[in-house]
Specification:
The complex is a heterodimer of chains A (about 300) and B (about 250). Chain A has two domains: about 5-225, P-loop containing nucleotide triphosphate hydrolases (Rossmann fold), CATH 3.40.50; about 225-304, Alpha-Beta Plaits (2-Layer Sandwich), CATH 3.30.70. In chain A, helix 4 crosses helix 5. The radius of gyration of chain A is 24 Å and the shape is elongated. Chain A has helices spanning about 45-50, 75, 95-105, 110-120, 135-150, 165-185, 195-200, 220-225, 235-245, 270-280, 295-304, and strands at about 5-15, 20-30, 35, 60-65, 80-85, 155-160, 185-190, 205-210, 210-215, 225-235, 250-255, 260, 285-290. With about 300 residues, chain A is of the alpha/beta class. Chain B has one domain (about 1-250). Helix content of chain B is about 80%, strand content about 0%. Chain B contains eleven helices and no strands. Chain B has helices at about 1-15, 15-40, 50-60, 60-80, 85-90, 95-130, 135-165, 170-190, 195-200, 205-215, 220-250. Chain B is globular. The two termini of chain B are about 20 Å apart. The interface of A and B includes residues 49 and 55 of A.
C-alpha cells in the first residue's frame, strides 16, 4: 500500500468569524500529482499554508509522510519544498546569493546544487542582477529553484505558473513531470488555468467556499466527464418536451445561449434530428462534446 | 539553530548598508573630534576641546543610544520586507529558532559595532584632545557597560515588534510608544504622584536617563548602575518572551 504523504482530516480554519476551511479532509498518496482546484477564495492557499506551517487550524489534524501523530511536523517539513503565494527573497542580493543563504540554512553541503537548480529553471545567467530587479516570472522561477534545492519528496506549489511566459509554462510542466516520473516526487499544485492542470495531474481535489467537494483520480474524472450532445436550437423548450415525451430523456441542461446539453442518448443524434424536423423545430447544430474540467467543477459547485 | 545563525551572518555581512552605517558613524565621530581639536588649537580658552567634554557627549546621552539601537535593528531587517523566513518555516525550521537565531546574530553584530565605535571614539579623543584626567574614560566605559542591557532591551523591543507586526510603521510606532512615550508619561505624572515616579524608573529609558544625568557630576551610584542593568535585563527577557509567544502564533504571509 502506498504511503500517504499528506493526510489532512477534518480541518477547520477561521479568520476571526470568517470560516475559510470547513471540515476539509485531503489525502495525497506518494507519487501523485495532486491538483487543487477552486475559485478565488475557495481556500486553496490557506490549505497549503497549513501544510507549510505558515498558519494553524482551529480543528483537525495534519499528518505528513505517514507520521503517527501531528506533532513534530517540522521534522517532516524538511522533506518538503513549498512555493506559496509570492516568492520571498532577499531583494538586495543576487539569485545565487539568495540560494546560498538558504543552502547554508538548510545544511546542504554541495555548493554546486545552486548552479544545478538555477540551470533547471533557466536563471543561470542572471549574474550580479539583484532580485529586486527581477520580473515576476524570474522571481517565480527562483522560487521554484529554491523549492527543489534540497531534493524534496513533496513539492507544494501555489499557482506556480503565475507570471511565466508560455515557454516557461512548458518548461515547468516538463520539469514537474520529470521530477514525478524519474524521482517519484509527490506534487501538490494549484492553478487557475485548469487546462494546464489537466496536462499533468493524476488526482484532483475540488474546493469551493472552504469545503472539499470531491477528491477524484484523473481516470475516474475522465469517465465522469462524460460526453454529451450539444444541440443548438431555436425553441429549446419545445425540444426539451420532445426529448422527454418521445425518447424518455431527462438528463439534460438548457443554457441561456439556447443550447441544450444532453447527457444520455448520445448516439441517438440522427433520431433526435428526425424528431425535430417532424415537429418543425429548427436545429442549428448538433455535435458530440466532452465536459471540460471547468464545466465539471461548475457543475459540482452547483450540485453542492 | 547553528545553520540558521550561519545563514544570517552570511546575509548581514553582505548587507552594504551595515558597512556604510559603520563608516558614517566612524566619520561622524572623527569629525566631532576633529572639530573640537581644531578649535582647541586655534582658539584661546576654548573650553570644549578636552576628553571630558567629548566623552560626556556619549555617557550623558545614553537614551539617545537607545534610538540608535532601534534604528540599527530597523536597518538590518529592512531588507526582509518579503518575510524570507516563511521559506525557513516551510522547510521545518522552528519559529523559535528563526526568532532567536536572527536576534542573536543581530545583537552580536550590534554589540561588536558598538564596542568598535566606542573604542574608536575613545582612541581618537585620547589621541587628539586635551586629557582632562578626571577619570572620564572610566566613567565612559562604565556607562557603556551599565547601559548594555538597556540598549539590548531597546534592540529586542524593536526587533520583536518588527517580527510580529504586519507593517514596519506599526512596529516603529509600537516600539516608540512602549519604550519612550509610556515611561515619559509616567515620569511626568510622577512629578505629582509618587507611585508613577516609582513605576517610571522601571523602564530602561528612565533608568538610563537618570544614570546619564548622574554621570555629568560623576555621582553615579551603585543603585544607578544596578537599576540600569536590572531594568535592561528584565525588559530584554520580557521582550524575548513576548516575542516568542506572539511569533509562534503569527500568521505568516
Amino acid at each position: 500500500m502506498k504511503e500517504t504523504v499528506v493526510k489532512m482530516e477534518h480541518i477547520t480554519k477561521k479568520y476571526k468569524e470568517n470560516v475559510v476551511l470547513d471540515d476539509v479532509s485531503l489525502h495525497i498518496v506518494r507519487g501523485e500529482i495532486y491538483g487543487l482546484v477552486g475559485n478565488n477564495g475557495a481556500g486553496k492557499t490557506t490549505l497549503m499554508r497549513l501544510i507549510a506551517g505558515h498558519s494553524f487550524a482551529e480543528k483537525g489534524t495534519i499528518r505528513l509522510f505517514d507520521s503517527s501523530d501531528n506533532k513534530n511536523l517540522n521534522e517532516y517539513r524538511r522533506r518538503t519544498g513549498a512555493l506559496i503565494e509570492e516568492p520571498a527573497f532577499l531583494l538586495n542580493m543576487t539569485a545565487e546569493q539568495n540560494l546560498e543563504y538558504f543552502r547554508i540554512q538548510y545544511g546542504i553541503p554541495e555548493k554546486k546544487r545552486i548552479h544545478e537548480v538555477l540551470s533547471m529553471v533557466g536563471l543561470s545567467d542572471t549574474g550580479k542582477k539583484k532580485v529586486q530587479q527581477f520580473s515576476l516570472g524570474m522571481k517565480q522561477r527562483l522560487g521554484i529553484a529554491l523549492c527543489m534545492m534540497h531534493s524534496p519528496e513533496l513539492l507544494i506549489l501555489d499557482e506556480p505558473i503565475n507570471g511565466l511566459d508560455p515557454a516557461g509554462i512548458l518548461e515547468l510542466r516538463q520539469m514537474l513531470l520529470k521530477l514525478n516520473q524519474k524521482y517519484n516526487t509527490t506534487i501538490l499544485i494549484s492553478s487557475h488555468i485548469l487546462a494546464e492542470l489537466e496536462n499533468i495531474v493524476t488526482c484532483y481535489g475540488f474546493l469551493s467556499r472552504g469545503k472539499m467537494l470531491e477528491e477524484i483520480t484523473s481516470q475516474a474524472l475522465a469517465q465522469k466527464c462524460a460526453s454529451f450532445l450539444n444541440i443548438a436550437v431555436d425553441q429549446p423548450e419545445k425540444l426539451c418536451r420532445l426529448l422527454e415525451r418521445e425518447l424518455g430523456y431527462y438528463n439534460f441542461k438548457v443554457y441561456p445561449d439556447r443550447c441544450i446539453h444532453l447527457y444520455e442518448g448520445i448516439e441517438e443524434g440522427n433520431r433526435i434530428c428526425e424528431l425535430a424536423i417532424k415537429e418543425n423545430i429548427s436545429l442549428h447544430g448538433l455535435e458530440k462534446r466532452r465536459m471540460s474540467l471547468e464545466n465539471y467543477y461548475m457543475k459540482l459547485v452547483e450540485e453542492c | 539553530m547553528l545553520n540558521y545563525m550561519k545563514s544570517e551572518i552570511y546575509r548581514i555581512v553582505r548587507d552594504k548598508r551595515l558597512w556604510i552605517l559603520l563608516l558614517a558613524f566612524s566619520l561622524l565621530l572623527a569629525a566631532v573630534v576633529a572639530v573640537l581639536a581644531f578649535f582647541q588649537n586655534y582658539e584661546v580658552n576654548f573650553p570644549y576641546g578636552n576628553t571630558k567634554f567629548a566623552l560626556s557627549n556619549i555617557y550623558a546621552s545614553l537614551t539617545m543610544l537607545m534610538f540608535v539601537a532601534g534604528g540599527f535593528i530597523l536597518l538590518l531587517n529592512d531588507g526582509d520586507k518579503t518575510h524570507v523566513y516563511k521559506n525557513s518555516i516551510a522547510f521545518g525550521v522552528k519559529r523559535s529558532t528563526v526568532l532567536l537565531g536572527k536576534f542573536l546574530v543581530q545583537a552580536v553584530t550590534a554589540i561588536m559595532s558598538c564596542l568598535l565605535l566606542a573604542a574608536l571614539y575613545s582612541l581618537l579623543c585620547s589621541s587628539f584632545l586635551v586629557h582632562s584626567d578626571v577619570g572620564e574614560f572610566v566613567v565612559y566605559w562604565k556607562a557603556i557597560l551599565s547601559a548594555s542591557l538597556g540598549l539590548l532591551s531597546a534592540l529586542a523591543g524593536v526587533y520583536m515588534f518588527v517580527m510580529i507586526a504586519d507593517t514596519m510603521s506599526f512596529a516603529m510606532i509600537s516600539s516608540v510608544v512602549i519604550m519612550m512615550a509610556v515611561p515619559v508619561i509616567f515620569s511626568l505624572f510622577g512629578r505629582r504622584i509618587g507611585v508613577f515616579k516609582v513605576v517610571s524608573k522601571l523602564f530602561p529609558y528612565i533608568a538610563l536617563g537618570d544614570y546619564s544625568s548622574h554621570t555629568l557630576t560623576f555621582e553615579v551610584t551603585g543603585i544607578d548602575t544596578m537599576l540600569a542593568l536590572l531594568t535592561g535585563g528584565c525588559w530584554l527577557a520580557g521582550f524575548l518572551a513576548y516575542g516568542l509567544v506572539m511569533f509562534n502564533k503569527k500568521e505568516i504571509k
